């Protein structure tokens, strides 16, 4: 059945029926507003992200499950970057009429799969028709203890610069997709990293608890995202390019196709790992996998130590 056959309210009811039972005290889809109880001593975190067909994804390539997953994941990652705990999300989208109910069911299976990993149910949203492309807008809510939110502006000279996971995998996956290159083996892993990023929520909470001074998720590549931290904090940085964590899959595909793996790690974006700064004594207590890649220094410049170029700016929309 296509979207026209379902109708707006039939579509909403189909979405609501899949959400199941919400946590006690929370009211979600079905009224004019969602209702969430407030807790004394906590702050609410809110983030909104937009995904546009042709800019963020190719509808003819990405499967609906993966698109649903990614739509939720990139927003949940923002809560992770603050050291917070996700509470729920709101989804609004403009739908081309050619999409059918099977496509929508698979989209929501992916959306709920990653939302379930983070205990963040869908609480509401809006739907409308689109004359052309699919547009998806997600708002996610979270919370953290009052005064424990990790901002971009807290980095200080002497802090170590660290990242979770490996960098450049998503950019490698995108190159395979756009180039129409084989996807088996290592390529499949890179494409999965591009289409189904995992929000580092638990890691963000551990990093915050151990005394991070600044943190953000890596959406546009550290060439851009580290600059957000240095500018907000009024500091400079030295990054040891040789220490950037690269996966075996990215290295093998880069060798095969002549890619600059470290360039992808710096400027590629959409890894949705965590970039954070922390004093060295606090870093010794951090009990999750991470890689130290540099140090915060006085000044305002970023030195990419060991790089052939210093002109790293990450991905930019405009």
Structure description:
By secondary structure, this protein is α+β, with helices and mostly antiparallel strands. It is built from eleven helices and ten strands. The chain has helices at about 5, 10-15, 65-80, 100-115, 170-180, 185-195, 200-210, 220-235, 250-255, 260-265, 280-285, and strands spanning about 40-50, 85-95, 120-130, 135-145, 160-165, 215, 235-240, 275-280, 290-295, 300-305. A six-stranded mixed sheet has the order 6-8-5-9-7-10, sandwiched between helices. Helix 5 (about 170-180) crosses helix 6. The radius of gyration is 20 Å and the shape is globular. It starts with a helix and ends in a 13-residue tail after the last strand.
Radius of gyration: 20 Å
Please provide the ordered H/E string of secondary-structure elements: HHEHEHEEEHHHEHEHHEHEE
Low-pLDDT residue intervals, each spanning 5 or more residues: none
Portion of residues in helices?
A: 25-40%
Order the strands across the largest sheet as they lie in space. 6-8-5-9-7-10
How many E-type strands?
A: 10
What kind of oligomer do you see?
Answer: single chain
**Share of residues in strands:** 15-25%
Q: Which class do the helix and strand fractions yield?
A: alpha+beta
For the termini, the CA-CA separation is 39 Å
Distinct helical segment count: 11
Q: What spatial form do the alpha-carbon principal axes imply? A: globular
Strand count, sense and barrel status of the largest sheet are:
6 strands, mixed
């Amino acid at each position: 059945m296509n979207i026209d056959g379902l109708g707006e309210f039939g579509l909403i009811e189909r979405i609501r029926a899949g959400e199941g039972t919400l946590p006690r005290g929370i009211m979600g889809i079905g009224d004019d507003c969602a209702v969430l109880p407030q807790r004394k001593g906590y702050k609410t975190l809110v983030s909104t992200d937009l995904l546009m067909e042709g800019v963020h994804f190719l509808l003819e390539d990405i499967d609906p499950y993966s698109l649903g997953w990614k739509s939720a994941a990139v927003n949940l990652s923002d809560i992770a970057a603050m050291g917070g705990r996700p509470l729920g999300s709101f989804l609004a989208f403009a739908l081309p009429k050619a999409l059918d109910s099977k496509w929508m069911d698979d989209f929501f299976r992916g959306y709920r799969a990653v939302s379930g990993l983070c205990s963040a149910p869908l609480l509401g949203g809006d739907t409308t028709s689109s004359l052309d492309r699919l547009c998806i807008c997600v708002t996610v809510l979270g919370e953290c203890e009052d005064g424990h939110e990790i901002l971009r502006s807290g980095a200080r000279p002497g802090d170590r610069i660290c990242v979770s996971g490996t960098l450049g995998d998503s950019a490698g996956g995108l190159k395979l997709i756009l180039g129409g290159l084989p996807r088996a083996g290592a390529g499949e892993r890179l494409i999965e990293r591009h289409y189904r990023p995992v929000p580092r929520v638990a890691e963000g909470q551990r990093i915050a608890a151990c005394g991070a001074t600044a943190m953000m998720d890596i959406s546009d590549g550290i060439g851009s995202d580290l600059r957000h931290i240095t500018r907000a904090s009024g500091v400079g940085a030295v990054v040891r390019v040789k220490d950037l964590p690269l996966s075996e899959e990215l290295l093998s595909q880069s060798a095969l196709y002549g890619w600059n793996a470290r360039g992808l790690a710096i400027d590629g974006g959409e890894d949705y790992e965590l970039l954070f700064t922390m004093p060295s004594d606090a870093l010794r207590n951090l009990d999750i996998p991470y890689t130290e890649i540099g140090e915060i220094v006085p000044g305002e410049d970023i030195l990419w130590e060991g790089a052939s170029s210093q002109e790293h700016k990450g991905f930019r929309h405009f």
